Automatic annotation (TrEMBL):
Source species taxonomy: Bacteria, Pseudomonadati, Bacteroidota, Cytophagia, Cytophagales
Organism in which the protein naturally occurs: Hymenobacter glacieicola
Record protein name field: FAD-dependent oxidoreductase
InterPro entries in the record: FAD-bd, FAD/NAD-bd_sf, Geranylgeranyl_reductase
Residue span(s) of domain FAD-binding: 2-320
Top-level lineage group: Bacteria
Amino acid sequence: MDVVIIGGGLGGLCAALDLRQRGHAVTLVERQRYPFHRVCGEYISNEVLPYLRRLGIDLSQLAPAQLTRFQLSSPAGRLLSIPLDLGGFGISRYQLDAFLCEAAEAAGVTVLQQTTAMAVEYEEAAGRHTVTLAGGQVLTARVVLGAYGKRSSLDRQLQRPFFSQRSPYLGVKYHLHYPSMPRNLIALHNFADGYAGISAVEQDRYCFCYLTTRRNLKAHGSIPHMEAEVLARNPHLRHILEHAEFLYPQPEVINEISFAPKTCVENHVLLLGDAAGLITPLCGNGMAMAIHGAQLAAARTDAFLRGGLPRPALEAAYHHDWQQHFGPRLRVGRAVQRLFGQPLLSEAAVAGLRLWPAAVRALMRRTHGQEF
């Protein structure tokens, strides 16, 4: 086998489709079964559209929401609003991931759903990886791509430093009906120790997703009490909580979200998407980064498989590509996050940015890329 990809999110699925279209034998391992929900803001910058078109992906079939304006509020409700220069679209992971999986399978990718990768080893002498699956099955491949998300037991097996460091952050996501909000708007609303994003997805739904801390949750005992006592202090969030129709009774929740720097190559595994580095949700472009990372990884992997790059050059070139495209974005994202979540600092930041809209556009350009 040429390539095994661990993880069937956006990065894994796009890389699988890209490499299969280049003629390589690809197996993708996904521990869940499509379709399923993920904790995600479900906004994608339009920078990905040329690449998706090259892969033969026509998202118009899913009728995504077209997003053209951005709004930011302070904890007290002070608003800043500007156009989205490049624009973007909203689409649920429930629909998009399953759609990409169908495209990958139609192209000839072997997709193993409800299958967990337990360990990855590299055999130096043979120049091959072995991937051990739950149940004992072993796959061998010349290249392994790790696209398994924010946190996995594989991170422990690969002895990645961030895995042993506790993170205070948790993410919560709902789908809503909220007709009072324009469908071309993506909004970010700050509150004490966190911020929430809301934007339209397909059909008449909205994705409502927020990041906060375990300390906030522990202080109030439950997610509903925390929402009522903390998020609702922002009048825009209070309006959402009081007037939106929540479409499933329990939210999707993920713990231990780490924004610590990561490496994009571990034990000869090329990592992409959140496995390689997680941009703060405040900057709202992790989905586009995962798709772009797939393009970078697929191009370098193809060159290696065709004999154009030895393995050390493959890994060095991918590391260079990844750092060049995403390293500055992540650094800006971590810096911007420090401005928000603290009420006094958030109020000052929004007040200042309202008077300096060019700075907001500059920050957005620094956390988004160009079409590729």
